[in-house]
């Protein structure tokens, strides 16, 4: 154990990284199991709609997600498209490579008007946004009778992020679509899922609420707003890289390092059980919080024989008490962008 920890500490100091040569594991198709042969373009049964993240397709009248940053993508013809939603929500939408537009407390039917004037095909991506229940009650797109859909571009590489408010970009106005995880994956041309929730610990049972930590909630179909949610079915998609960024709230809630290390090991083992071929990366928190027990957890996992688990140092990526931060803990939009660009370069070694 001490020998492995010594090696990892040496890598931390030197900034070394490991290149992997084995091929990336491919995910399942990003479509609901149920497809309607006679579905209208853009409707729920349209197989050209691609859903990224943890979605529930069990209701033929609505598809729902309960984790921030889940998104749906469609490629459509023409200059008009609307979306039907049930539960009021905040979300972000993007046409082609244009800017993200925020839609706050939206409900019923929303029409997207910033579509380029030229004809032909366009791609619309809609991502669940900034609120605490993260309920995306999607009921389909509405297109003119002459419009059509076709399969959008969807990467076969999937990066999954496990984290708290820092990973969900919670103090930034456009939250999930501006956080470092989204930025890094988009630079790499990869799809991405954010299993992150503001205020969550790694470990269960600490803090003001004393509820679930990510060691339990990560394995559920819904976010911490729904602590008794059913287990997530990991057969729905496969992540190729899983990054864990946890420890800030555990530190605030005075979780002992020994307990934190134990729970970190438990989480990694749970991820490995569901993603046997994934590269799992323990990301150093940007303020260096809980670095020692995180390193120790990785060392113990490595010592037990799983060498596809890594520690990634982040020291110096962004600077506290500068415009890189909104406050003492949360990166600003500029800070998230910096982290995302650095992380994208680092992740190239794992692809």
From TrEMBL:
Q: What InterPro entries does UniProt report for this protein, alphabetically?
A: CE2_N (IPR040794), CtCE2-like_dom (IPR037461), PCW_deacetylase/CE (IPR052762), SGNH_hydro (IPR013830), SGNH_hydro_sf (IPR036514)
PANTHER family referenced in this protein's UniProt entry, alphabetically? ESTERASE, SGNH HYDROLASE-TYPE (PTHR37834:SF2), GDSL-LIKE LIPASE/ACYLHYDROLASE DOMAIN PROTEIN (AFU_ORTHOLOGUE AFUA_2G00620) (PTHR37834)
Please give the CDD domains that the UniProt record associates with this protein.
Endoglucanase_E_like
Cited Pfam families: CE2_N, Lipase_GDSL_2
Q: What is this protein called?
A: GDSL-type esterase/lipase family protein
The residues covered by the SGNH hydrolase-type esterase domain are: 162-337
Q: Which domain of life is it from?
A: Bacteria
Occurrences of domain Carbohydrate esterase 2 N-terminal (ranges): 51-145
